[in-house]
Amino acid sequence: MVSIAIDGPSGAGKSSVAKELSSRLGFIYLDTGALYRGIGYYFVNNGMDYNDESIINKNINSIKIDVRFENGTQNIYICNDNVTDKIRTEEISKAASKVSSMKSVRKFLLDLQKNMATKNNVIMDGRDIGTVVLPNADVKIFLTASPEERAKRRHEELINKGNKISYEEVLKSINERDFNDSNRAIAPLKPADDAIVIDTTNYSFNQVVDKLMKIVEEKVR
Prior knowledge:
This protein is of the alpha/beta class. It has one domain (3-219): Rossmann fold (3-Layer(aba) Sandwich), CATH 3.40.50.300. 50% of the residues lie in helices and 17% in strands. The strands form 2 sheets. The chain has a 5-stranded parallel sheet, with helices on both faces. The protein is globular and about 50 Å long. The relative contact order is 0.22.
């Protein structure tokens, strides 16, 4: 099985690029960030304090999380509830950032992610795919962009989905998420030593995808 790891900060375009790349290659695409969002959603939806690690540790193993590919699209189910469209809010983003820093949560999701790569040609995107989840991935990419550009992209995405939020709020959230993800003790956000780092600030979506396709073709022959 061939595995491609795409890491990077929030709003770098990982998910959109990975989806298009998987379509072109015929690979399974796993958005691992959606898994952490699903966990965050569980605690928010049940009114539990996701900042309290003792509460997380006590309840994490009660969560039933499933990844189902329906009509070629990844769907996240939490306790048999399809939450795919419910987890793309700034509140859930903050919850995901917090719970992803906790050892019990990362351990809970690690086997699910690793098993996916043993059974499929897979593209995974996240923040520690190349460093922790798939350290032996055939191709490792680290996508990034300036915080301002990432905030602009995320803001447009949220507005198009009907969310009423200012650009300034999104930029603040992205900067906070960058700090939390990069400074957490467990699996911090950073490029793998052998990752190819690509700054997408001045690239169009298609230019980024074409660049990655060329890298994959060179690495996997």
